[in-house]
Amino acid sequence: MQIVMDVGALNAFMRQEFPQIAGNYRVEQVDDALLVARLSVDDSHLRPGGTVSGPSIFALADVAVYCAILARIGPVGLAVTTNASIDFMRKPEAGRDLRAECRVLKLGRVLAVAEALIFSDGGADPVARCSMTYSIPPK
């Protein structure tokens, strides 16, 4: 799948369209096979017990999938999540950012399906796996 938005364009789009999350999430890598995004974890992402909250993990997966799709279709701000499933597999490591590795599995005219694996920075085993379907609006 051809890339039409690179790392710089994706991060600029997210800063412009979603300024409320601009400091938390960033795309670090994108190519025809993989997009890597990062959540800069701070105290606002923690739940009791000092671990990263489920909603924060889910948000990283959603941002990564959204950006992976936009990397292929361009800046289509109204592409939206239509289905999501997440498996929380282990507790994220304390004091570490989270990294999402996202792969687009199918890109059609109307729907896109992707998967994101979420890791604690430096960790080898995923802390969560998320699959998502996005609806792509007509041109």
Explain this structure to me?
Helix content is 22%, strand content 37%. The chain contains two helices and eight strands. The strands form two sheets. A six-stranded antiparallel sheet has the order 1-2-6-7-8-5. Strands 3-4 form a two-stranded antiparallel ribbon.
Give the terminus-to-terminus CA distance.
Answer: 19 Å
**Number of β-strand runs:** 8
- What is the strand content? 35-45%
Q: Output mean pLDDT.
A: 95
CATH class: Alpha Beta
GO molecular function: fatty acyl-CoA hydrolase activity
Keywords: Hydrolase
InterPro entries: ACOT13, HotDog_dom_sf, PAAI_dom, Thioestr_dom
Family: Belongs to the thioesterase PaaI family.
SSE inventory with pairings:
Blueprint: H1 7-17, E1 25-30, E2 35-39, E3 46-47, E4 51-52, H2 54-73, E5 80-88, E6 98-107, E7 111-120, E8 128-135
Family: Belongs to the thioesterase PaaI family.
Domain Thioesterase: 49-124
Keywords: Hydrolase
Q: What are its keywords?
A:
about 140 residues; alpha+beta; Thiol Ester Dehydrase, Chain A; 6-stranded antiparallel beta sheet; 8 strands; globular
